[in-house]
Amino acid sequence: MVINPTAAWILIGGFFFLILVRMPVAFALAISSVATAYYLNLRLTVVFQQIVGGVNVFALLAVPFFILAGEIMSQGGIAKRLVAFADVLIGRVRGGLAMVNILASMFFGGISGSSVADTSSIGAVLIPMMKQKGYGAEFSTTVTISSSVQGILIPPSHNMIIYSLVAGGVSVASLFLAGIVPGVLLGVALMVYCYIVSVKRKYPVGEAVPWRQAVRVIRESILGLLTVLIVVVGVVAGVFTATESAAIAVVYAFIITFFVIREIPLRQFGAILSSALRTLAIVLILIGTSSAFAWLMSYLNIPRALVSAVTNITRHPVLLLMILNVLMLFLGTFMDMSSLILVGTPILLPIAQTAGMHPVHFGVVMMLNLGIGLLTPPVGGTLFVGSAIGEVSIERLSIAMLPFYAVMVLVLLMITYIPGLVMFLPNLLR
């Protein structure tokens, strides 16, 4: 196994240098790839062929459809109905609004598949309400952004589809099933912590919802929750593929939002489409440039060298998995989630397999690791959105997040070292 050290430094070192000087990740990937190809005297057309080939994949059609479905339901009033539904179920306990926040994020995350969308929609409704009821601004915001990570785990998640492609065609249905228990476990762990804090700080007890109002709320919210049911059951049962299910989700979301709920006019669909296209443009350029970057890493034998280096340190599965988690948590502090999935999977998955971890299991562990990264400075996108909505500075919010980080890392360790929590449903239903 021969590695050209200079080329490796240009590729990896150049990429991290450009990230540190605030270059957008997609451009950092492209520039370091072109510079490395030029040094190796490779034709630059090879790099651009890899970029085009990276996005020219039929299965990627599921990504824009899921993004669009999430945008439609995010702006169409579904979030408010899910908050009301969660209030009916759990709003009567001490610290009820915090519990409602977490449960609503669990429901909405299953529709949007996005931590940022979850924070924007649920946070806009619940953070002001929690502050008005006497919850602290930091606590209200940290609850919202922490619970939003459930949306990355609970299906449908477009990030899991991206991982499936990069990992060599891991079953999307298995990934969807594998994310359910960890997503719910994360929500329960956050609820337990929030209840303890609420009792200690004497946050208010929620009011019971009248029976007739509860029936109406459940009837209205069930239409949104059916999106998750249609997608997950359809994919798992083999009725349609992930791409077909995403297209069906868009049609269903469009009909429910504009012809059943009718909270926003049809003319607003143009703005929704524009927002979805902006998100999609970011995702696709990351996929394309990371494909060229990953190809050059493979060309230089970097993944195999890293696997060899890590396994030379230790071959004990417990230590290997701990090293993987520490690496992903560290990288997540300054790299975007999609780019880390695209760049990190070819390097880290072989190490995980050396430790005996199934690719589906590793995919879910990676999602939670990188989801925590969305909440950490200096590049945490969800952290910045929460800061803006909650009107709390990044510094104060980061300090307030410390106990929530501890809860999330505890859940991360549980799903890492107890494979049954992740693989139970895929093994049972597949």
Structure description:
- With 430 residues, the protein is an all-alpha fold.
- The chain is 79% helix and 0% strand.
- α4 packs parallel to α13 (242-261), α5 (78-90) crosses α6 (96-112) and α8 (137-147) packs antiparallel against α19.
- The longest helix has 31 residues, at 269-299.
Q: What are the low-pLDDT stretches, counting only 5+ consecutive residues below 50?
A: none
What's the shape? globular
Strand content: under 5%
- Count up the helices: 22
Count of DSSP strands: 0
The number of domains: 1
The chain-level structural class is mainly alpha
Overall pLDDT score: 84
Instruction: Please write the string of helix (H) and strand (E) elements.
Output: HHHHHHHHHHHHHHHHHHHHHH
Helix content estimate: over 70%
Kindly provide the radius of gyration, computed on alpha-carbon positions and rounded to a whole number of angstroms.
22 Å
The main pleated sheet reads as: none
Keywords for this entry:
single chain, 430 residues, 79% helix, globular
Task: Tell me the layout of helices and strands.
Blueprint (H helix, E strand, L loop, with lengths): L4 H16 L4 H15 L4 H12 L6 H14 L2 H13 L5 H17 L2 H18 L4 H11 L2 H4 L4 H9 L5 H30 L9 H26 L5 H20 L7 H31 L2 H12 L3 H16 L4 H18 L4 H15 L7 H10 L3 H7 L1 H16 L1 H11 L1
Helix pairs in contact: 1-2, 2-14, 3-14, 4-10, 4-13, 4-14, 5-6, 5-12, 6-7, 6-8, 6-11, 6-12, 7-8, 7-19, 8-19, 10-17, 11-18, 11-21, 11-22, 12-13, 14-17, 15-17, 16-17, 16-18, 17-18, 18-21, 21-22
